[in-house]
Write a structure and sequence with these properties.
single chain; 18% strand; alpha/beta; 9 helices; three-stranded mixed beta sheet; elongated
Amino acid sequence: MSSNQDSSDDETNDRRKQRMERNRSTIFMQQQQQRNNNNNNNNNATTSSTQNNKASSQNRTGAISKNVSSHNAQQQQSPAQNENLENIALLVDNMRFVIEPSLFTAHPNTMLGTMFGTGMQFTHTNDRGEYEVAEGISHTVFRAILDYYKNGVIKCPPTVSVTELKEACDYLLIPFDATTVRCQNLRGLLHELSNEGAKQQFEVFLESLVLPLMVQSAQRGDRECHVVVLLDDDVVEWDEEFPPQMGEEYCQTINSTAMHRFFKYIENRDVAKQVMKDRGLKKIRCGVEGYPTHKEKVRKRPGGRPEVIYNYVQRPFIHMSWEKEEAKSRHVDFQCVKSKSVTNLAEATADPPLELDASSS
């Protein structure tokens, strides 16, 4: 009995061991499969993340390329768009100029800066959308003047005279001086600069020295004025009993060496004439004449009449009037002249002519 029981226990133990080994193997296999599954999941996750990174990088690359291509397209389209939307077309001497209006608005004191800097309210285009400006100015001169708006300096072309360039600058209200104009013809440039300087200088002389004398003449009832320009150190001593015989009844003098030096040049006299003409004065004369300063001697003429001899110096003078016509009567005189064809005065002056009976004449 005991042997049989032992054998049965051994069999039970063997079965238990086999069951345990099977369980261990099953658990090991499960763990191994779990590890394999985990490795596969990790690999899949790595692959998917790599794929996602590649896709995102591709997306970013595509977006950048799209942005670059769109920027390039905008850059390629911008000149045409600027020309159509921002630039303006000017027509000068049948020549077309396409200009940015900001060049003009940067100089508001010029004519073009005023025209295109106020919202272009006073400018109108032609049928082709062009602004016709600078009438009377050649396209060659206008092309040179555009350099002033670009870099502040005008280079006078060799084929253009300095006078023509000066007139164009005056018309367009562009400063004409040594800082804004470069010219090969220095004589012509300095001549125009001298004319401009003489104009400004004579304006000062006219207001400060000449105008008070003109007012004095007007207050006396005169309608003209004759002024002789003396040096500062000129001394005038006339004999009260025997004054000199003057050509002008009322001759006034100005002691100014600067003004005397100004009128030494014929060109300055021409400028002075133009200034006075622009101020509305008439019958203007400028020149040099002899002016008596002091008595030299007295001699007797036949018959005992004394003759006084004065010392004369050459001094410049200006003469002007503020009346259109002097010493001319505005009264219309009618003169009746007997005519052989018309013997009746009423018939001659009638409008329409009177038809009178022949018997009444």
